[in-house]
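Example with several molecule types.
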Amino acid sequence: RHHSLAFALYEIGRDEVHLRKITVTHRLQQAILNGGFELLFQPQYDLRAGRIHSAEALIRWQDPELGRMFPDEFIPLAEQSGDITLITDWVLNEALRQMAAWQADGHDLGVSINLSARDVLQDDFIDGLIARLRHDDIRRDALMFEITESAVMADPEHALRNLQRLYDAGVSLAMDDFGTGFSSLSQLKSMPVHELKIDKSFVLRLDEDRDDQRIVRSTIEMAHHLGLSVIAEGVENRASLALLYDMGCDAIQGYYLSKPKTASELREWLATFDQHRLESLHA
Ligand code: C2E
Ligand code: MG
Ligand code: MG
Ligand code: MG
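Resulting structure tokens for the full complex:
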């Protein structure tokens, strides 16, 4: 068989991608055993109450060989290998530890944790999670789990059953990246979620894109009709924030407020947070 040069190069490229995946998956397993993860927290601002009410936990990984790694690359690989549930366990432990520390500091701050499709479909993982949540010292009411539409769509019946169990255990659930999957607002009706998180692709240019404005406005309106609260991610400027406030959005998260921070950076930031920067919105 005679292959073209282009095809040969394509195959080499494919091998490289494959090798990278194997390497990252292997290094990730080392990190699970030996450490190397860090949990950052990005504050979420409650537009109605006018205060920072929560923070999203976002994982980072620094590997001695691969360098600084971002979750968009390694989380999908951890899902494929099945290691994701071990990572989620680590995230949960770390987040609960921080939440207790903030509490001790006098900050009433909740935490949002991302769950992957694999987490949601693994019954023994959900069993373990619920068992942990039963402990008295855990503030279930301050804990939110974020799930994506695609996590639910992979096996809706199974996912919904486990989400319902989490819901019944007293934690809140948010539909993350809303608008990027294939589910519709009407399907949300039957889902045990409290909050809808509008994907940043609709929010990043909200101030200048009329179509995004229409989409976001009607999403907020319909979510409210379904009894869900709405948070917008990816708020990068004051103009977008003001629009979201006018549209009745319940909460925001984004670089305009703060990038993801380490726990100690966040603690410092909270202490000096300039309320006035956002307060004029409420005039
Ligand atoms: P996500 O859950 O939708 O998280 C929001 C992402 O948007 C984060 O990226 C955050 O840093 C970024 N972001 C927030 N505000 C802005 C903004 O104003 N502008 C822009 N351009 N970006 C903003 P990050 O931390 O890189 O995480 C990417 C994705 O990786 C997350 O998307 C989530 O799906 C996944 N992920 C992160 N941490 C975890 C984790 O602990 N467990 C699981 N299962 N997935 C995680
Ligand atoms: Mg999220
Ligand atoms: Mg999101
Ligand atoms: Mg996202």
